[in-house]
UniProtKB/TrEMBL annotation:
Transmembrane segments: none annotated. InterPro entries: Collagen_mod_GT25, Glyco_trans_25. This is Glycosyl transferase family 25 domain-containing protein. Belongs to the glycosyltransferase 25 family. Keywords: Glycosyltransferase, Transferase.
Amino acid sequence: MRRRASRRLFHVLGTTFVVITLCLFQFRNSSPFGHKAKNQRWTATSGLMRDIRNSTLGFEKIFVVGLPSRSDRRDGMVLQAALSDMQIEFIDGVQGKDVPDKAIPISSPDAKRLADGSIGSWRAHLNAAREIVQRNLSSALILEDDTDWDVRIRDQLYDFALSAHALTQPLRGLRGGYADPTYPQPSDGSPESVPETDFYRLPTTGPPTISPYGDNWDVLWIGHCGMHFPFHHSKTVPKGRVIRLDDETVAPKKNLWTFNIPFTLKESYPEHTRAYHHVQEGVCTLGYALSQRGARKLLHEVGLKGVTDAYDILLRFFCEGEKGRAAGRQCLTTQPALFHHHRTAGRVNGMSDISNHGDNGEFREKAITDMVRWSVRLNVEALLEGRTDFVDQFPDE
Ligand SMILES: *[C@@H]1O[C@H](CO)[C@@H](O)[C@H](O)[C@H]1NC(C)=O
Ligand SMILES: *[C@@H]1O[C@H](CO)[C@@H](O)[C@H](O)[C@H]1NC(C)=O
């Protein structure tokens, strides 16, 4: 009897020991990015993550695409970049009329040539992608020349990177696999939606080794005029969603807009919510990063296959594996976007080099940047003086 009792005691003690050890192990491995670690986010992480603070925002290069004749825009971009401690390189935009028919791949005998504006934009963006491939850059951020961003862009990108890890990096430790069961691609039996991940309780993932944004992405589409959350029925887009409440860089709902209706972020979430997820039906290519791998695939799928639609729609086909483009791309985004249109004061028809707005004599009295609270461009004077009393374009009531 006594022997059996002591064996049981031994058993209980042993189990307790194992459980405690496992708990400690889990605790030690618990998210370095969790709520409590928020304030030490610059110190608690690997060297690669620190690169997000560098002069190319954790990418190898930053390219700005636009026509050389738009010296006004180049002046603006150079100034914004300087005041943001960013290094940029220009990629010359192209006039559609200068691109011969022969240089435009078609996918059917009766294909029609797109309007010059769309051809020029397609070519300029593909030139940027080609540059990445030819120079073997590990990644590059591509911006259009009329964009603007928040003074806090590095914090925003850092948080984007943390969320990107949760969406695409393998889980660390005993569990293995991915936090999102529909990643890297939904399968026949996989759920149509998955529970949202709270930004303040991200799962612990293995650290990336190639890019601070993760080792498994093709496109980071972070400047746009609209995104949908992944559709339930999409067979190619993983459903993971990271939701961040109380992002002070997000403008009040009354100042948010999108081309993509319904605007779920605005309709279903509280004020100042930011979402991170996979690309679904992005509109406008104001800013996006390509990895080397992404640029190669883009050159193949969008440079060398039928140019059937405007570039942003082709990029959407690319990300979602549609219209003859292979599935399996990994494209991440955030809502609201991080790069937005800047609209200068002056004649409104100066806005677009793509579509012809015509000269209706309209004059914009006051410059604005869509949805960006502490706009770099609109705080140039403070930044030039080294002041930090930034003007918030979209204050709460
Ligand atoms: C910034 O970080 C990225 C990612 O590590 C790196 O590729 C790039 O060269 C760095 N940029 C500069 C200017 O050091
Ligand atoms: C491109 O860069 C990768 C990673 O640094 C390297 O392994 C590869 O050899 C390079 N390719 C060329 C053609 O330089």
